[in-house]
Amino acid sequence: MITLLFLGRLADLAGTAERQVPAPLDWPGLLAMLDPALAAEAAGDRVRLAVNGAVLADKSTLQVADGAEIALLPPVSGG
Amino acid sequence: MTGESAGADMIGGSAEADMAGESAAADLQASADIRLLDGAFCVGEALDGFAVTHPQAGGIASFTGKVRPGEGLEALELSHYGPLTLPGMEALAADTLARWTLDGLLIWHRTGLMRPGEPIVLVAAAARHRRDAFLAADFAMDHLKSDAWFWKREQRADGWHWIEPREQDHADLARWRTGD
After folding, report:
1. Is B37 on the interface with A (CB under 8 A)?
2. What is the pLDDT of residues A1-52, one digit of tens each?
3. pLDDT for position B149
4. For B17, B47, B91, B127, which has the most beta carbons within 10 A of its beta carbon?
5. Which residues of chain B have pLDDT under 70?
6. What is the per-residue pLDDT for B156?
């Protein structure tokens, strides 16, 4: 299985902070796993992906196997 | 008051030259205090400790960010992502230490639930000269505000609202990119 983590407001959109999905998974496969509103948000320029703690330069290159953790990262705000 | 004087400048010049051979990694270990905190902290105690740790500094500039009271705000919650947030803060510290001549740098950032008036973030820079300290603290804060792995939401009477950086926060961050 693959763990999807939804950070920030994406957790509200997903209705959960964490979800398990079957492996393997690529970018079109990930989008197909998400509700349309969340998929549209995830596909936008402002949402980044991290795989096992490393941010992807290009989301469309996503290719993960069993045991991976994918974090969906919306725009940040701290301080 | 700061410890700056013409005499200190000259002593500082030779001391800095002597230390130039130390590795950057050792410098970061010795001079940076970077923490992600899930409970309240005391700004005064943090700054007292920082000053004791860096007695050679000519001055310390600090910024404390607090949950801004008013406007119906009941609570603020900061979430983070473990694999990215603290490593990102450490990378920011290394970048800050590389850009200015500092004796020490402290970056403490809260996560979790906070009430109005509570501190969220503390940045302190200790340096031989004030300009380095002011600029380093300013640089670190601008990056924490809109280029660090935190997500912030505010609770008001009508529920929770996610907060995104303002245009001004992005403009503040862009100021530092012109010199790259």
Report:
1. no
2. 999 999 999 999 999 999 999 999 999 999 999 999 999 999 999 999 999 9
3. 97
4. B127
5. 1-30, 179-180
6. 96
**For residue B147, which phi and psi values (nearest 5 degrees)?**
-140, 30
Interchain CB distance below 8 Å, A77 and B169: yes
* Token digits of residue A11: 């957790």
Q: Domain coordinates of chain A in residue numbers? A: 2-73
Helix (H, G, I), strand (E, B) or coil at B98: helix
Query: Which pLDDT belongs to residue B2?
Result: 42
- Phi and psi based region of residue A24 (left: phi greater than 0; alpha: psi -120 to 50; beta: remaining): beta
Q: What CATH class has A2-73?
A: alpha beta
How many Cβ atoms sit within 10 Å of the Cβ of residue B27?
15
Identity of the residue in B82, B145, B153 whose CB atom sits nearest the CB atom of A78: B145
CB of A35 less than 8 A from some CB of B = no
Amino acid at B99: R
Range of the domain at B63: 33-174
Assigned domain for B11 exists: no
- A30 exposure class (CB count in 10 Å sphere: 0-12, 13-18, 19+): buried
Among candidate residues B58, B81, B51, the one with its CA nearest the CA of residue B131: B58
ipTM of the shown complex: 0.94
How confident is the prediction for chain B on average, in pLDDT? 87
Q: What total number of domains does chain B contain?
A: 1
